[in-house]
């Protein structure tokens, strides 16, 4: 498995088709909570729905258009994190992620996002990374803030979720800012 060690507890790894059962179980166990902020969850009804998604993730990695990684915590699949829509012209990408409910509260996602920022700036040479989340998704807003990302604004009624439109907070960090921010987080 191609992986990136975050620390002694966490590693990020390219998805494997053989992980589909574990990924589906993670999503299915937390369907209601994940589905509140991630509309795609309702479309995942079996492992057959996830296999094309994993293959697409691998194809996008090969094409350099996105980087989708599984989050492994103590050897167990805990979630997924990604650099979505890598814009080669502007050298920017947005961060997406989810974490299974039994893995929350351990700082996993904050550490995973920090590692992904390292990858984005050091390996991909990106200039800017941004994160968008529903204004009322307090855990995701907290991750962005703990990673030192700057809030650039709130877009009113931008996200359509199960229960209607939600305001969307937009956070970002620049490559030249990241070393100082990272040093202040340690």
UniProtKB/TrEMBL annotation:
Checking Pfam families in the record gives: Acetyltransf_3 (PF13302)
> What PROSITE patterns does UniProt report for this protein, alphabetically?
GNAT (PS51186)
CC terms in the record's Gene Ontology section: cytoplasm
Any GO MF annotation of the entry = protein-N-terminal-alanine acetyltransferase activity
Q: Give the InterPro entries listed for this entry.
A: Acyl_CoA_acyltransferase, GNAT_dom, Ribosomal_N-acetyltransferase
Can you give the residue ranges of the N-acetyltransferase domain? 10-180
Superkingdom in the source lineage: Bacteria
Full protein name: N-acetyltransferase domain-containing protein
Protein's organism: Lactobacillus equicursoris DSM 19284 = JCM 14600 = CIP 110162
């Amino acid at each position: 498995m191609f992986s990136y060690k975050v620390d002694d507890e966490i590693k990020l790894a390219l998805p494997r088709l053989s992980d589909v059962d574990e990924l589906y179980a993670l999503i299915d166990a937390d369907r209601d909570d994940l589905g509140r902020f991630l509309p795609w969850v309702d479309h995942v009804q079996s492992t057959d729905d996830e296999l094309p998604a994993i293959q697409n993730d691998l194809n996008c990695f090969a094409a350099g258009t996105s980087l989708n990684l599984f989050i492994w915590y103590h050897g167990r699949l805990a979630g997924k994190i990604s650099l979505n829509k890598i814009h080669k012209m502007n050298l920017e990408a947005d961060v997406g992620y989810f974490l299974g409910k039994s893995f929350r509260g351990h700082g996993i996602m904050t550490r995973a996002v920090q590692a992904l920022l390292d990858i984005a700036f050091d390996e991909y040479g990106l200039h800017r990374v941004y994160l968008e989340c529903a204004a009322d998704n307090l855990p995701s807003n907290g991750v962005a803030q703990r990673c030192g990302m700057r809030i650039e604004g709130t877009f009113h009624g931008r996200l359509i979720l199960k229960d209607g439109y939600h305001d969307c907070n937009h956070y970002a960090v620049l490559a030249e800012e990241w070393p100082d921010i990272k040093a202040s987080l340690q």
